[in-house]
Design a protein that fits this description.
Elements: H1 3-11, E1 13-15, E2 21-23, H2 30-42, E3 47-51, H3 57-68, E4 73-77, H4 88-95, E5 102-104, H5 108-118, E6 122-127, H6 133-146, E7 147-156, H7 161-171, E8 176-183, H8 189-202, H9 210-216, E9 232-239
Parallel strand pairs: 3-4, 3-6, 4-5, 6-7
Antiparallel strand pairs: 1-2, 7-9, 8-9
């Protein structure tokens, strides 16, 4: 790991653009940093696009890993970097020697289509922006247009209801396969019970007709393990083939 990033984590504090000390209160965990870094290095990824920067923890991890793979293309989108985050993330990137990132201070629903229109291609995407279902889906939609076959997209905060619902939708996408996750250590008893209940319900599918079973008991709907992701904080999908869905494609989620 980049020594600058390691020092921030060890001290649990960082600095804004003016040198004022700020407590490290937002960012990915050490386990998530290791997960991101391993994905990039194991799959030899070198061109990234990232939605959300905040204090720059994920940005530092991504820039460090793609540099090791011989890459330097890193687009970072964050409309609130200056107003909310006091340029902490971008300042950290500069201090760590990653001043060549392309920072876009705009909303991702505007910035990502512009990158697609310019013909930008990447092989790693990281989504940690506005945490609603529709915003996360929009982010994935455009990153999918930019992501090359063999590339990986990572989505953070999977345990949040809106993000988890979007993951259910993504899990049905042809051309993508599950590529790993970081387990969420703070699992509530209610979530554990729900996960077990879906496994029991799935076992009853033989009592219904084939059509009803396909609608209700689909294994892509009754995710009692990796697919439901109630026990995860971050998840990765690898793009294994081009997006060739028909114009009227739909799958239950």
């Amino acid at each position: 790991m980049n020594q600058f990033l390691a020092a921030i984590i060890a001290a649990n504090q960082t600095q804004d653009e003016y040198g004022n000390t700020v407590e490290l209160h937002s960012g990915v965990s050490q386990e998530e940093i290791d997960f991101i870094s391993s994905l990039i290095r194991d799959h030899h990824l070198s061109r990234a696009v990232e939605v959300g920067c905040a204090m720059g923890m994920s940005s530092l991890a991504i820039s460090d890993a793609i540099k090791d793979e011989g890459g330097s293309v890193h687009y970072i989108i964050d409309p609130h970097q200056k107003s909310q985050w006091k340029n902490i993330g971008i300042s950290n990137l500069k201090r760590a020697g990653f001043a060549d990132v392309t920072f876009i201070e705009d909303y991702s629903e505007f910035a990502l289509p512009a990158l697609v229109k310019k013909g930008v291609r990447v092989n790693f995407g990281f989504i940690d922006g506005w945490h609603t279902f529709d915003h996360t889906l929009i982010d994935f939609f455009y990153i999918n247009r930019m992501l090359e076959v063999g590339g990986v997209v990572v989505i953070d905060d999977v345990q949040m209801p809106a993000i988890n619902k979007m993951i259910r939708y993504l899990y049905n996408y042809p051309g993508y396969r599950f590529a790993g996750k970081v387990r969420n250590k703070a699992i509530t008893a209610k979530r554990k019970l729900f996960s077990k209940a879906t496994a029991v319900i799935g076992g009853l599918r033989h009592l219904t007709g084939r059509r009803i079973a396909a609608e209700i008991y689909s294994p892509k709907l009754l995710r009692s393990d990796e697919a439901l992701q109630l026990d995860s904080s971050m998840i990765a999908f690898k793009k294994i083939s081009p997006d060739e869905r028909d114009w009227n494609w739909y799958a239950n989620f």
